[in-house]
Design a protein that fits this description.
about 280 residues, alpha/beta, Rossmann fold, 10 helices, 7 strands, globular
Length: about 280
């Protein structure tokens, strides 16, 4: 399905984004790779056997996004375009109790995890609609389905990402566009190590759950399978994380009690996110 197509991946320098780039390349898709770390993006591009454009940009520089989209679209046209798919993957998370967390954490996470993908999609969407086809993949989170402790900003942004893409799906399905929302649980990446603490500082340490999480290559393969089959939502999680996401819809009160009990039992202290 993906051979010859052109896919744009944000957050492509590491983790799920890098794994998706390699997985798409194995399917002979051409790639546009975006993020901030140019050296890491070039390294990912070097591991991919298909044509690629390394297109670094600051996700929250919203004014620059129309020009970035124009450059991506022009390159895609030179490769036999249009752009077939956009993966909104870039993001940051947190590990802090809401009562302790400075407002800057909320501003930064909502800007990167919600407003940035909306800005990019809004700039690209009219072109996809005009082309009569396109595929959007939003990498949300299990925390975007349930309200995860120590992740109030992240959960807020990822809930919003789901809502936005669900609306776009409803509005564009009859125009030939497909939208897949992915809700990963623990995937073995640097997401936890790079998380913000209560004072908007980089945490610098990982979580046991993340370190024991799903291999990014496995996650990428499952995302491609879901996209190829036309799936509209993928809960990319196992065990209690998958159960929690499903419980949020089936029996929300039971989930709320479970989350509250987790915190009451000392979860914040175990995670090194104690109150000031």
């Amino acid at each position: 399905m993906f051979a010859g197509q052109i896919w744009w991946i944000t957050g492509a320098s590491s983790g799920i984004g890098a794994a998706l780039a390699e997985a798409f390349a194995e399917k002979q898709a051409k790639l546009i790779l975006s993020g901030r770390n140019v050296d890491a993006l070039n390294e990912v591009a070097g591991r991919c056997s298909t044509a690629s454009l390394v297109l670094p940009f600051e996700a929250t520089d919203y004014a620059a996004i129309p020009a970035i989209v124009e450059r991506a679209w022009t390159w895609a046209a030179s490769q036999g375009g249009p752009i077939h798919g956009l993966v909104n993957n870039a993001g940051i998370t947190q590990r802090s109790l809401a009562v302790d967390t400075v407002f800057d954490v909320y501003q930064r996470i909502v800007a990167v995890d919600l407003l940035a993908p909306i800005a990019l999609t809004q700039a690209l969407l009219p072109r996809m609609v005009k082309a009569g086809r396109g595929h959007l993949i939003a990498i949300s989170s299990v925390a975007g389905i349930l309200g995860a402790p120590l992740r109030s900003a992240y959960s807020a942004a990822k809930h919003g990402l789901i809502g936005y893409h669900d609306s776009v799906r409803a509005e564009t399905a009859h125009l030939g566009l497909q939208v897949l929302v992915v809700a990963p649980g623990s995937v073995k990446t640097n997401v936890s190590k790079n998380a913000l603490d209560a004072n908007a500082k980089v945490r610098g340490v990982s979580d046991a759950a993340i370190d024991a999480g799903m291999n990014p290559a496995v996650a990428a393969a499952r995302i491609l399978e879901a996209a190829a089959s036309g799936q509209r939502e993928l809960i990319l999680a196992e065990g209690g994380e998958a159960d929690g996401a499903r419980l949020r819809r089936a029996d929300p009160d039971a989930l709320f009690d479970r989350m509250a009990s987790l915190v009451a039992a000392g979860y914040a202290q175990q995670m090194g996110a104690q109150r000031k």
